[in-house]
Design a protein that fits this description.
three-stranded antiparallel sheet, about 400 residues, TIM Barrel, single chain, eight-stranded parallel barrel, disordered N terminus, alpha/beta
Length: about 400
């Protein structure tokens, strides 16, 4: 794909009358689906991978470079942006799109993940969660209503309901209580989102299914969310240490409990083989920090599996990271040069490794969309797994 211009992140159909939110499924093969979400800031082709821009930036890449990978949408983090620079400040500066220079859709998480990941710094109640900031210890209340307000101030296109996430290793009682509270918070999130008609008229709200690995709990959660009504539905509470086998076992039933005609978003996933397996089970949207974090740490994802560029065997390798990849990194620089940059701690090394990884993830999604459209996804999945795991 050619390098994008500095303005490539701007929505391509500015001024054109576009729907607030519309999802169309164009083709299916088994449970796998491909389609498109249409929103005012642009189309999102599904299955879609959303690069994570935790603090208002996909680490190491400019917005035009992110767009050039094929990404249609990125993710922003409510908790982190609430603390720094502050949602009210972002709003004063024109919203997250103008602030960051990304003119296409942005999905913001609700802060629910940090309820679990920063549990040592939180105090939970029915009202919400009080966080002690990991930056300076200051205290912040995040409730369903405040989460909706922050996401509105950021100018989010896809808003996530506020939920309570607990590990899959928690007790059945804890899982039940967290799921039931999440459903009460989902209802409050719906009311909070709808309370601002201006934002609600141009954005979408997704509910989050909880219930750990329990099929009955997942069904109760799905039924409660459907009764409230959302534009899309996320499968939450997975990829938190349960392992791929257990995650796939849950995905064998969880997506089908959600409406067929709405997007299904698997939060926080994952490795390339996770994505392929989840698409086969009916998932439409993904996000994960893995391609950027791994890039910064010298790991590249390739069609023949992950590669550690720090290994000495790459020091004199004149070949590309991935011979099947047409990204600007693979068509310009050698493994030897990238090995040198990463070993020397040069920031360009982390940037180029990240750029390749996001390209690879977006190429993988594009390949899956094409395979489903052509009714050859089963063959694609088999070939992918054969090549990806060949070196293991």
């Amino acid at each position: 794909m050619p390098t994008a211009s500095p303005c490539a992140s701007v929505a391509p159909e500015a001024g054109v009358d576009r729907p607030r939110f519309d999802f169309a499924i164009h083709a299916t093969e088994g449970k796998a689906r491909t389609g498109v979400i249409r929103m005012q800031r642009g189309d999102i082709r599904t299955p879609a991978f959303m690069p994570v821009g935790t603090a208002g930036t996909v680490k190491g890449l400019r917005p035009a470079e992110v767009r050039a990978t094929g990404a249609d949408i990125i993710l922003g983090n409510t908790y982190h942006l609430m603390l720094r620079p502050g949602a009210e400040r972002v709003a004063k500066l024109g919203g997250l799109h103008a602030f960051s220079g990304w003119g296409r859709p942005i999905l913001t998480d609700s802060g629910g993940y940090q309820v679990m990941s920063l549990s040592a710094l939180t105090k939970r109640s029915e009202e919400g969660v009080v966080f002690a900031s990991h930056l300076d210890g200051s205290r912040h209340m995040l409730s369903p209503e405040r989460s909706m307000e922050i996401q509105r101030l950021l100018g989010s296109d896809i808003v996530m309901a506020f939920d309570e996430l607990v590990p899959t290793t928690s007790t059945p009682k804890e899982q039940t209580q967290a799921m039931e509270r999440s459903m009460r918070w989902a209802k409050r999130s719906r009311a909070g989102f709808d309370s601002d008609e201006g934002h609600a008229s141009r954005a979408a709200l997704f509910g989050i299914q909880q219930g750990a690995l329990d099929e009955a709990l997942r069904k109760s959660s799905a039924d409660a969310l459907i009764d409230i009504g959302f534009d899309g539905y996320a499968v939450g509470g997975l990829a938190v240490g349960e392992g791929q086998e257990a995650m796939f076992a849950c995905l064998d039933f969880a997506p089908s409990q959600l409406p067929h005609d709405k997007p299904r978003y698997l939060m926080g996933v994952g490795k390339p083989d996770d994505l392929v397996g989840a698409v086969a089970r009916g998932i439409d949207m993904f996000d994960c920090v893995l391609p950027t974090r791994s890039g910064r740490n010298g790991q590249a994802f390739t069609w023949n599996g992950p590669l550690n560029i720090r290994n000495a065997k790459h020091a004199e390798d004149s070949g590309p990271l991935d011979a099947r990849c047409g990204c600007p990194v693979c068509t310009t620089w050698s493994r030897a040069y990238l090995h040198h940059l990463v070993k020397a701690g040069e920031m360009l090394g982390a940037m180029l490794m990240t750029q390749h990884n996001i390209h690879f993830y977006e190429d993988l999604m594009a390949a899956m969309r094409a395979a489903i459209a052509d009714q050859r996804f089963a063959a694609f999945e088999a070939d992918f797994r054969r090549d990806y795991f060949a070196g293991r």
